[in-house]
Amino acid sequence: MTTPRLIAERRQLGRRLLLSAPAMLTLLVFMLLPLGIMFVVSILQSGDYGGVKWGEYSFEAYRNFFYERDLDDTLVFNTDYLEIFQRSFWLSILTTAGCLLIGFPTALYLALQTERKRNLLLFLVTVPFWTNLLVRAYAWMLLLRNGGLVDEGLQGLGITDTGLGLLYTNNAVIIGLLYTYLPFMVLPIYTSLEKMDWRLVEAAFDLGANRFHALKRIIVPLAMPGIVAGSILVFIPSLGNYIIPELLGGGKTLMIGNLIQLQFGSSHNWPLGAALSFALLSFVLLAMLVYSVRFKPGNAGGHP
Amino acid sequence: MGTSSSEGTCSAISIEQLSMEFGDPGQGVKALDTVSLEIQSNEFFTLLGPSGCGKTTLLRLIAGFEQPSAGTIRLYGEPMQDLPPFRRPVNTVFQSYALFPHMTVAQNIAFGLEMRGLSKSEIGETVTRMLELVKLPDVGGRRADQLSGGQQQRIALARALANRPKVLLLDESLSALDQKLRKDMQIELKRLQSDTGITFIFVTHDQEEALTMSDRIAVMSKGRVLQVGTPTEIYEAPVNRTVADFIGETNFLAAEAVADGVLLSDGQRLSVAGDRRGAVTVAIRPERVSLAADGQLLGKVENVVYVGTDTVYHLNVAGEGGFRVRQQNRDGALSGYRVGDSVRVHVPSAAIKVLVE
After folding, report:
1. Which residue has the higher pLDDT, B194 or B331?
2. In the beta sheet, which residues pair with residue B291?
3. Cys bridge to A273: A101, A263, B191, B325, which one at CB 3.0-4.6 A?
């Protein structure tokens, strides 16, 4: 009795597999395969002048992450890399918080405009994407350097009397990251605010909520999916960013991205670079896992 | 918010010369045109009119969501027009219900009470009482979007009433419900109004709904109030053609008023008391007249429509078609008049309204 149904089900399954094959293939070739190669590289011996020694396996790279080998070959706990990770996380958290602080009001302002004005403003938000990030980072160097526009402007206004020495500091890196990723915060929040039913805000006012309470109890909870998406879109790329700390941090403020680049570059330690990438990946996956548990689809309000 | 005067006799809401203009002053669209109204305490007051007549704008002005271009709104004597919505002791039941989707039913009802800073135990008690008032005691823990339309409607009511507003505003609140539920809610609303003693201002475009529930009705059209009165007054004595046309069914005949009656265009004469002279419109309700051999008005049957309880005859009278006569089907059978028959219509003089317009 169930046989014809089974056949039909099997046929449908086959068709589904066929239809999803291109996507699966893309994922396999461009995602899983490189990751596999990376993993293999991370457990190989490093070559003397870059590259790896194929066939010679070692977990040295992962050990290197926590320990360094002393002269007498004993392992000593080494916090250098962990500190760089910690700094990267800290700078990324500050960047995300800053983007949220500036991005949410911006998105709210955008969502409250008339449709014509809104489209123009949205267009302006995306304008920075027209120019290469490298060029924009150099522009920030000119702005932030000693005697640059920011220094001169502040001195001209009489706010400061000496140079701030902003360039090549953590602050410069945060400013650069903030600038780079702000649109990625504004756009998802705008999207969730734009489709919000504003009559709910009217209802909140009607029930005696002032502007602050309406914002806290109604607007922010309903914009939560956008806030979370924006935070992820800012936090994760900030964590791995390479150009901004390299240029605005002057190589003094290393972040994970620079550290990884260094291993594949002048340090000639590919396995360590690959291992660091995996460490970063695992942190990111952990964050995504927390997100997906906390904000299940269908639980769009994000209310606990 | 203290009330200075005694609430029994004082107007709950007093609206004076209220105007609302969208767009540039002077050339914008007038949504409300110098409207004045007095709404009594503990009254079920309905704003009735077709869409775009300004009734919802008036409601939003009372709630505080819009600012009037001119005029004043007083609530128990206190001017309201400059207060933000959250400072006004009025609450609204929205057409879309506007329940907060990220909160449970109980949290929705508690919202206004929390905003007023009541204690947790007071809030809990009120929420329970409100859920009982709207006869949904067990849904407090559910999310708003898990309820049916009728239940959402009741929760929206409970949420608004929980704040014990001086005036409750209801914006087309029943229009999203199906026919059966709507009839139930009409009775329910009336019960809630008399139970709570709160002044209700109800906005609707449904004249039957307005007639059923209201103590008084304001008929609005194009931003103006045409007539204010009890349902009987509005139905029996409409002040002009627009009101007569909007409330119930009406036949209109062009006529000329003469000494002891009116002359129709084909010379037929209907006797009616009155001292008007010249061109007038005669309004006659279809259910007030009957087909009878000794009727004074001559017509020709154009169409016969059977609608269950009644049969409606469409007649051509004085060269104009569409004159309706509604006959109750008391004997459960058609009277036997057919299309093309010449018939006589009995028109009692009390059924004739002479309108100048």
Report:
1. B194
2. B345
3. A263
pLDDT tens readout for residues B234-251? 998 899 889 998 888 899
Residues B202-220 pLDDT 10s: 999 988 889 989 999 999 9
B218 and B72 assigned to the same domain? yes
Sign, Cα dihedral of A131, A137, A138, A139: positive
Q: CB–CB of B94 and A202 under 8 A?
A: yes
Tell me the residues of chain B between 216 and 235 that have a Cβ less than 8 Å away from chain A: none
Rounded CA-CA distance A96/B53 in Å is 49
B115 at A interface, C-beta within 8 A: yes
Cβ partners under 8 Å of residue A95, min gap 6: A174, A177, A178, A181, A234, A235, A238
What sign does the dihedral B294-B298-B301-B307 (CA atoms) show?
negative
CA distance A8 to A106: 53
The answer to whether residues B210 and B273 belong to one domain is no
ipTM: 0.82
Kindly list the domain boundaries of chain A, sorted by start residue.
Answer: 88-294
Mutation site for B-interface testing, chosen from A200, A206, A296, A303 by largest number of B Cβ within 10 Å: A206
Judgement on whether residues B233 and B101 belong to the same structural domain of the protein: yes
Nearest alpha-carbon partner for B357 in B261, B263, B283, B280: B280
Name the minimum distance, in Å, from the CA of B100 to any CA of chain A.
Answer: 6
Alpha carbon of B58 to those of A275, B55, B65, B72, B139: distances in Å?
Answer: 68, 5, 10, 12, 33
Q: Name the CATH superfamily housing domain A88-294.
A: MetI-like (1.10.3720.10)
Quote the Cα angle for B10-B12-B16, to 5°: 95
Taking CB atoms and an 8 Å cut-off, how many pairs form between chains A and B? Answer: 62
Range of the domain at B198: 11-241
Do B182 and B284 lie in one domain? The reply is: no
Check: CB of residue B40 under 8 Å from CB of residue B199: yes
pLDDT at B349: 85
